[in-house]
Amino acid sequence: MSPWISLITALTLLLYLVITINVGRARAKYKVAPPKTTGDAGFERVLRVQQNTLEQLVLFLPALWLFSFYVNPLWGALVGAIWLVGRIAYAWGYYQAAEKRMLGFGISSLSSMVLLLGSLVGIILSLVRP
């Protein structure tokens, strides 16, 4: 087990926790009581950041660990760190305006694709090596 990949995983979970707390804070700020998921556009952007990040975690975390195991844990951690930066940029931008989310989304999506495709190559190579 790689401590670098474990660190990226823990930081990813911490980021998700902060983003989730932000939803609760936005509910209070914009007076959107649970279970409502609509209201002020500012609240909806904060909620969308949380939902999209959760959707992306389903792809990112397994790809991160598979890449680490089949390719290289240090490179996996580096790409994972780039993913984290992308997610922070995504959240920061989206909190301000929906159209400001694209750079962060692109960075994190590309990072996930690198991890997934790299994992597939690593897995296939491990299957065909004698």
UniProtKB/TrEMBL annotation:
Keywords for this protein: Membrane, Transmembrane, Transmembrane helix
Protein topology in the membrane? Multi-pass membrane protein
Please tell me where this protein is predominantly located. Answer: membrane
For the keyword Protein biosynthesis, the answer is no
Task: Report TM segments.
Answer: 6-24, 102-128
Q: Is Hydrolase among the key words of this record?
A: no
Subcellular compartments: Membrane
Q: Which is a Pfam family this sequence falls into?
A: MAPEG
Q: What protein name is recorded for this chain?
A: MAPEG family protein
Please report the organism this UniProt entry assigns to the protein. Nostoc linckia FACHB-391
